[in-house]
Design goal:
The N and C termini lie far apart (about 95 Å). It is built from 44 helices and 19 strands. With about 1300 residues, it is an alpha/beta fold. This is Transient receptor potential cation channel, subfamily M, member 2.
């Protein structure tokens, strides 16, 4: 088979496979669409007119549709002959014919889902359509945005805050946004917010925006109609020709088009939208889905929406400044209810509605006044979002506060609602709101109630919430009592090697702590109780297998100490450390410290020894206190070996944590200085030490200051030359000698056969290589070779050492080869430069020059980025100059010279002569580039003179100098200056931090400098490899104290810790007192009192001028009727008796505003016409008794049994439970409603107390019939005197959370007061 045939078959096979795959995808999509169409046809209906009757406008039916839009049966009906058109009788349901995908076209090809639904469609069916058929995730929050349906102006700052806040809420909570769905008014603003989010966000997830619009007002809706559905339907947003109709908004994701069978009638969708929102809010299994209504602008219809939403307990957020009804409500929301009069509402309506106000009747103004009064009577559901000049809040905060405010007033949801609000606060990561709105004195939380919140905060990496929960009663011991919780936390870690190993080893959650201990190795050995399980872990599982010393230490711990308890703070600390979360680790460590402090008086000496270390880690100031008290003990604390942290020291831990502030402390630096000087006194000047290095007999004359303890002659000499600083100085001297020898060999004595000096150079370098190898393998801290190698490579000077050795070896190999002899010399010359740079390391020990080395390294990084910027100008000018002057230069060396080298020299003032005719020299160039030592001449004319445009080359040179010399070089100077100022403040800390590694290097280094150091290397090799002797242990950096000394040291540190805490508190109190004294000095107390008095008097005068009654007046007017609404205590009028909808009927009360309730006030004319002049009973009404609470808006008996007072005698059976020490009452449980009520009887068999008697504000009250109640309390000594909780009768605790009506709950409060119990 030929290669062409094989390729043809492969292409054909690929095409067939692709076609089959595409076919499967197409079949899958087709099946899904058929299933969707079948479900919608079965469950979703539309509405259509079945009786055509002209309305006087030609061939137009009273339903609004034209005659051609009706069926033949509707035009000539046989069933409705002689009838007049009625929407309830002549509109019928039929399977919907408009559903599928909608495509708006244009930029981005926005698509969505839509369906035409009947007004009678069940909300449950619509929810199934949204979640099951359209695959939407159930919402965590429902945001209903309502307001002006027409386009209105919104100020730019308010518009931006609305867009940002709405999107932030929806994005962080997974909310559904529900609007009217059209491209006008508030719906258009919501669509713009969603559009801005989609354009600015890189996330694939969309914000669910559901438009519930009226089908009969949609422009171009015929494009959406197809009996089998449209996939997709191409919808044209033709706003220019829509007339009185509206177009759909392209930024919404889903559309429910509500159809009532009419055309051109707005507001059809309001009822179904309200039912859908209410049904969705009750769908959540854990309680209720929070619903919030956001209002912008709006007219009378929006007022009705707000009123109905608040009656159903939905909080509303009003945006002040958005216009019309929103501004009216915002302006009266802060006023006392008595000031919200009909006249004020008329004034505000006229102000904010403008010309539209002329269309409002007096009856409508009265009705709206009543509704506005009822709205502001519910302040717990009303939140006004005000944007002032100094306000920088966001709408998302206002929405969250509105939800929390509404939840606090909830009568029946209780703790479940608080949990839901806390969950929202955690999702939004708003600690400030949770602290001020949720964790208040009113809310009582148990530790177990907040465990889910703690887990969510830990898994979501919200350390501030973790701290807040710990402050409000969460116990880590209870939270992590079950190791399943810890196991679940480890499962939340991102996928990594450690987590995979942990998952392999955990077979049950009970052993997760031990498995973590095992995987982390010896560093966590004392943190968990020793396990009786024997782990046999091979090297293929982990490299952190326990060593023999660990096994022995574990055995010793089993024998010597009692079985330790698992510490939850330590568990959480390790979990945070494993995922490298510093903030959570600090919080967990604080809990460890608190636990140690609480148990310090009862725990074993082991815990007592660990406690000061914990305090020291959390409070660095303790070490300063220790050092100021006793320097020697403080130094011991630094190098004391801790078994708790893997046999390491505090000093090493600080270095591992890169804590420069701790290392820079004077006490730490004093320890490092003492180690640097060895056994010599730290007060010896450097020049004395240098002289004694050469003339060592001066050691015995007192030339150097004597150390703390007397030494012998040999010991003095040994301590002199083994001191790290003496080793350092000798190494500097011999390093200069090495560089001198290297320079002599390169410049004078570089022969084909190596000379004696060159051989000495090779031996010298061999000793340097041996020393670098020794440093790489020297591991006194037990890090292991891998970590030690990583630490070695991370050191800059070690990198230079390795580079210089490699270059030297390469140069040596080339030098010994005849063909590459000269190249080898060049490499060695370059290597000499590297060795010279390595010389800068000697300055790191200097307090003056050491920080400057750090600044130089920072500036080298700045120089690298600057050279990249400079190279752009150099190459740009060089190529342009070379192309203009020289024609077809083909010599690479001269091209690079002209493009890069010459422009670079121009920066330093060396200008070329071939760009100016006056300085051009024909002898300095070659015409045809025949002379390899001369550049090619520019393009010449017949007279052998340059023809290039002289004016252009000079201008280019001037521009190049302007940018390169003036702009870029000054930029470099500015960058250097900025770097110097930025680094200068921290260079001292950085130098002190880096000084540790230098001191440790020379402390472990052999005393002899190179090349004599090779003798020490031979000795060390024989000692360790031949004689097998252990390495010598030095205690300068790690010291393991005996138990007695260790306990004394830590006890002393505990004392210093207490002293430090006391001094810190005193200093804080003294600073507070000092501020008070300073304030009193600048502002005398008499002056402050005088100013405060004037301010208070001004506030009182202002309040009185606004009509606010004084305290005395309020107390006189306040009614003792505690059964009325608490917000109405200032007016004393009934509230429930004036609600618009009369219970269990379709009757609507006449709106009675606050000022028209008393009978003494003049009766409203419309009120008389509608309710008192209704034949045939108008002559009897004046004889009826009047409601003592005032007008109610409806007359007659209503739903009550008789005219006049209707008496009720509810009983409160109570008894005191001695075991629980609580007061309980007997309640009747209504299974159908899920509520409780007090039992009611006509008489009592036992002695009773009268709790209350009088008028009751009841929904059933009318002008002529009302409810009066006498509440009786029968207190029992034994619960069995009545009966036990069984069936409908239940004993409940007397508390403010009782699930009773407001009137009965008030009766319960009075009964509790009778028995001196807190309610």
């Amino acid at each position: 088979m030929s290669e062409a045939d094989l390729e043809s078959r492969l292409v054909h096979s690929l095409a067939v496979n692709t076609a089959i795959h595409s076919k499967h995808l197409s079949l899958s999509l087709s099946f899904q669409r058929l299933a969707l169409a079948s479900w919608i046809k079965e469950n979703i209906c539309k509405k259509e007119c079945c009786f055509f009757e002209k309305d006087g406008r030609g061939d137009v039916c009273k339903c609004g549709y034209a005659k051609t839009d009706h069926t033949d049966e509707a035009i000539k009906p046989e069933d409705f002959t002689g009838e007049s058109w009625n929407i309830h009788r002549h509109v019928r349901e039929a399977p919907t014919d408009a559903f599928g995908d909608i495509s708006f076209g244009g930029l981005g090809q926005k698509t969505g889902k839509y369906a035409r639904v009947s007004t009678d469609t069940s909300p449950e069916i619509l929810y199934q359509l949204l979640t099951e058929q359209w695959k939407l995730s159930p919402p965590n929050l429902l945001i209903s945005v309502t307001g002006g349906a027409k386009n209105f102006y919104l100020k730019s700052h308010l518009k931006n805050m609305f867009h940002r806040g709405l999107i932030k809420v929806a994005q962080t909570t997974g909310a559904w946004i529900i609007t009217g769905g059209t491209h006008t008014g508030v719906m258009k603003h919501v669509g713009q917010a969603v559009r801005d989010y989609a354009m600015s966000s890189s996330m694939q997830s969309k914000i669910v925006t559901i438009g519930v619009a009226t089908w009969g007002i949609i422009h171009n809706r015929k494009a959406l109609v197809h009996p089998e559905g449209c996939f997709p339907a191409h919808y044209l947003m033709d706003t220019g020709n829509q007339g009185q109709l509206s177009t759909l908004d392209s930024n919404h994701t889903h559309f429910l088009l509500v159809d009532d069978g009419t055309h051109g009638h707005y507001g059809v969708e309001i009822k179904l939208r309200s039912c859908l929102e209410m049904w969705i809010s009750r769908k959540w299994t854990g309680g209720t889905i929070p619903v919030v209504c956001v209002v912008l602008d709006g007219g009378p219809g929006t007022l009705n929406t707000i009123y109905n939403a608040m009656l159903h307990g939905t909080p509303c957020v009003i945006l002040e400044g958005s216009g019309r009804i929103a501004d009216v409500i915002a302006h009266v929301s802060g006023l006392p209810l008595i000031q919200v009069t009909i006249a004020l509402i008329q004034q505000l309506m006229k102000k904010f509605f403008g010309q539209e106000y002329e269309q409002f009747s007096d009856g409508k103004i009265i009705e709206w006044t009543k509704k506005i009064q009822d709205i502001i009577r519910m302040p717990h559901l009303l939140t006004v979002f005000r944007v002032s000049g100094d306000y920088h809040g966001d709408l998302d905060v206002a929405i969250l506060q509105a939800l929390l405010k509404a939840s606090r007033s909830s009568e029946f949801l209780g703790v479940e609602c608080w949990k839901r609000q806390l969950e929202l606060a955690i999702n939004w990561n708003r600690v400030d709101i949770a602290e001020t709105e949720i964790f208040t004195e009113e809310s009582q939380w148990k530790s177990s109630d907040l465990h889910w919140a703690m887990f969510s905060a830990l898994a979501g990496n919200k350390p501030q919430f973790v701290s807040l929960l710990l402050e409000n009663g969460v116990s880590l011991r209870d939270f992590l009592q079950k190791e399943e919780t810890l196991c679940e936390l480890y499962k939340q870690l991102p996928s990594c090697f450690f987590l995979r190993k942990l998952a392999k080893r955990i077979h049950s959650a009970r052993c997760s702590g031990r498995q973590v201990r095992h995987l982390l190795g010896k560093f966590t050995q004392p943190l968990y109780p020793p396990s009786t399980d024997q782990f046999n872990m091979s090297m293929d599982e982990t490299s952190l297998s326990p060593s023999k010393s660990q096994t022995s230490s574990q055995a010793q711990l089993r024998e010597d100490s009692p079985e330790t308890q698992r510490d939850p703070g330590t568990d959480l600390f390790l979990w945070a450390v494993v995922q490298n979360n510093k903030e959570l680790a600090e919080i967990a460590w604080e809990q460890v410290m608190k636990a140690l402090l609480e148990t310090s008086t009862t725990n074993s000496p082991v815990t007592m020894r660990n406690m000061p270390l914990a305090v020291y880690m959390c409070v660095p100031g303790v070490f300063t206190e220790c050092h100021s008290s006793d320097e020697s003990r403080a130094k011991k604390l630094l190098v004391r070996m801790s078994h708790l942290w893997g046999r390491t020291t505090c000093l090493r831990l600080a270095l591992e944590a890169d804590d420069k502030n701790f290392i820079a402390q004077s006490g730490v630096q004093a320890l490092l200085t003492q180690i640097w000087c060895g056994k010599l006194s730290v007060e010896n000047p450097v020049w004395r030490v240098l002289i004694c290095m050469v003339f060592f007999p001066l050691m015995y004359t007192g030339f150097l200051l004597k150390p703390m303890k007397p030494l012998g002659c040999w010991s003095r000499l040994m301590y002199l030359y083994t001191s790290p600083q003496v080793k350092f100085y000798w190494n500097i001297v011999f390093y200069f000698a090495f560089l001198f020898l290297f320079a002599v060999v390169l410049m004078i004595d570089f022969q084909s056969t190596p000379s004696a000096g060159e051989l000495l150079l090779y031996i010298w370098l061999l000793s340097v290589v041996c020393e670098e190898v020794r440093q790489l393998f020297h591991d006194p801290d037990g890090f292991g070779f891998r970590k030690k190698a990583k630490m070695y490579i991370n050191e800059f000077w070690n990198i230079l050492d390795v580079l210089s050795i490699i270059l030297f070896l390469i140069g040596l190999v080339f030098r010994l080869t005849t063909e590459l002899f000269y190249l080898g010399k060049i490499i060695l010359c370059i290597d000499f430069v590297v060795f010279c740079l390595r010389l800068m390391a000697i300055f790191t020990i200097s307090r003056t020059l050491g920080p400057k080395i750090i600044i130089v390294r920072k500036m080298m990084m700045d120089m690298f980025f600057f050279m990249f910027l400079l190279s752009i100008w150099v190459v740009a000018y060089g190529v342009a100059k070379q192309g203009i002057l020289i024609h077809n230069e083909n010599r690479l060396a001269w091209i690079i010279r002209g493009v890069v080298y010459e422009p670079y020299l121009i920066i330093f003032g060396q200008f070329p002569k071939n760009i100016d005719n006056t300085e051009f020299d024909m002898n300095s160039c070659s015409v045809n580039a025949t002379d390899p030592l001369k550049p090619k001449c520019p393009v010449l004319n017949e007279n052998q003179s340059p023809v290039f445009p002289e004016w252009l080359t000079i201008i280019m040179l001037c521009v190049y100098l302007l940018f390169a010399n003036i702009l870029l070089l000054n930029l470099l100077i500015a960058i250097f200056n900025f770097t110097f100022e930025e680094v200068q403040d921290n260079t001292d800390k950085i130098w002190k931090f880096q000084r540790y590694e230098l001191i440790k290097e020379y402390h472990s280094r052999p005393a002899a400098p190179p090349p004599f150091i090779i003798l020490s290397h031979i000795y060390l090799f024989i000692r360790s490899m031949v004689l097998r002797r252990p390495a010598k242990i030095y205690k300068e950096f790690k010291n393991e104290l005996n138990p007695t000394e260790d306990e004394e040291l830590l006890t002393w540190e505990s004392l210093m810790k207490d002293r430090y805490l006391v001094s810190a508190r005193q200093e804080q109190s003294q600073s507070t007192e000092r501020r008070i004294l300073d304030t009193l000095i600048h502002f005398p107390l008499s002056h402050q009192v005088s100013q405060s008095t004037k301010a208070l008097q001004w506030i009182m005068d202002s309040l009185k001028s606004q009509g606010l009654p004084s305290k005395d007046t309020q107390s006189r007017n306040e009614t003792p009727d505690s059964f009325r609404n608490t917000s109405e205590k200032g007016s004393g009028f009934h509230v429930k008796s004036r609600q618009f909808s009369y219970p269990n009927s379709k009757l609507t009360r006449f709106p009675v505003p606050e000022e028209k309730v008393p009978w003494e006030v003049l009766i409203i004319y419309l009120y008389i016409i509608k309710y008192y002049l209704c034949p045939p009973q108008s002559h009897q009404l004046p004889l009826l008794r009047k409601n003592p609470g005032g007008r109610t808006g409806i007359s007659g008996r209503g739903a009550l049994s008789r005219l006049g007072p209707n008496l009720n005698f509810p009983l409160i059976f109570s008894w005191r439970d001695s075991e629980k020490s609580v007061l309980e009452y007997l309640a009747v449980y209504d299974e159908s409603r899920g509520t409780l009520s007090l039992p009611g009887v006509s008489s009592s068999l036992c002695p009773f107390n009268v709790v209350y008697t009088g008028y009751v504000d009841d929904y059933r009250n009318t002008d002529n019939a009302w409810v009066e109640m006498t509440v009786l309390n029968i207190h029992l000594n034994r619960k069995s005197q009545v009966l036990s909780s069984n069936g409908a009768l239940q004993w409940q605790e007397v508390s403010s959370r009782a699930r009773l009506s407001s009137n009965q709950r008030e009766s319960l409060r009075l009964a509790a007061a009778l028995h001196n119990r807190k309610f």
